[in-house]
Design brief:
alpha/beta; Rossmann fold; 2 domains; 6-stranded parallel β-sheet; 3-stranded antiparallel β-sheet; 11 helices; 38% helix; binds ligand BV8
């Protein structure tokens, strides 16, 4: 059940911004990080998603990313992703998505204005010459990829302790500061600075909406918390928004 004020605020809005996390891809079969079935329940982020771990256990970290990349290559966007494409059709350039996800599913669904805060698993680069490599193959014989310059190749994702890409973070802060309506969808609100964006939006006067299957660390921030699957709630919001105003 979508509260009337959500549709009313969206009808009035010019600028709509969205922060997404792993939860929006859960219905596509991409495991989340935390919570039931989360990949980090077995592995600890410290052990894998940081540069020191990568230098210490390069083959293990590459094996983890390779496994995730293969899983992601076989996943498709879900109804929640496609509902955000519909919202971009309605609001045009005034609609932006800042995603913590590295699975490329927003782009695969058709959204154009996507800022990737934590990088993209389909891209890799050489830590010596910064050359991008897109077709990294990891197998028994080739467990650690090297660039033709001899440098080590790493996934183009942001690890703990690493700064977020400047352009994407700046644009995401701007989007939060200027939004009339701000959504936080499928994120547990654990990881900063991404998890700080909804409070930037709130402080700047946006009407804030959280969509999650459970309350999160930052739920108290939001004007409305919609508990449920993003693949159910987002299409419902789009349907009501498109209904003729009676
Ligand atoms: C930084 C990319 C400046 C790779 C990720 C000490 C030292 C250094 C830093 C810190 C420190 N203490 C704190 C920090 C900051 C740190 C941080 O926030 N740590 C946390 C854990 C406390 N942040 C950083 O290090 C960031 N950089 O601060 O730089 C700096 C520099 C030097 C020194 C100091 C500071 C970098 C953070 C980026 C880390 N990279 N991943 C990879 O993916 O492998 S983080 C990882 O978590 C993913 O990117 C993921 O996107 C992100 C957030 O997780 P969520 O997306 O929220 O996913 P999660 O599973 O948690 O939640 C899913 C949610 O969906 C749940 O709530 C669930 O209920 C819901 N859900 C499930 N199904 C559905 C659903 N909702 C709707 N519908 C459904 N169907
Ligand atoms: Zn190189």
């Amino acid at each position: 059940m979508i509260p009337q004020n959500v549709i009313h605020k969206l009808r009035e809005a010019k600028k709509v911004a969205v922060l997404t996390g792993a939860g929006i891809s859960a219905e596509s079969g991409v495991p989340t990080f935390r919570g039931a079935g989360g990949i980090w329940n077995k592995l600890k982020p410290e052990e894998l998603a940081n540069f020191e771990a990568f230098m210490r256990n390069t083959d293990v970290v590459w094996e983890w990313y390779n496994m995730r990349k293969e899983l992601i290559n076989n996943t498709q966007p879900n109804k929640g992703h496609y509902a955000l494409v519909e919202l971009e059709k309605i609001y045009g350039d005034e609609f932006t998505i800042s995603t913590q996800n590295i699975d490329n599913l927003h782009q695969k669904a058709g959204n154009k204005n996507v800022y990737e805060l934590h990088g993209n698993i389909t891209r890799s680069y050489c830590i010596k010459c910064n050359k991008f490599h897109s077709d990294i193959k990891i197998d028994e014989k080739n467990r650690i990829p090297y660039c033709d310059c001899g440098g080590l190749i790493r996934p183009d994702v942001v690890w703990f302790g690493e700064n977020l890409p400047e352009f994407e973070l700046t644009k995401s802060i701007e989007a939060a500061e200027n939004a009339d309506v701000y959504f936080s969808i499928g994120t547990s609100g654990n990881v900063y600075p991404a998890a700080g964006l909804p409070s930037v939006a709130k402080r700047s006067g946006a009407f804030t909406i959280e969509i999650n299957t459970e309350r999160t660390l930052i739920s108290d921030l939001f004007d409305v918390v919609l508990i449920g699957k993003s693949g159910d709630i987002l299409p419902e919001i789009v349907k009501l928004l498109k209904e003729e105003v009676k």
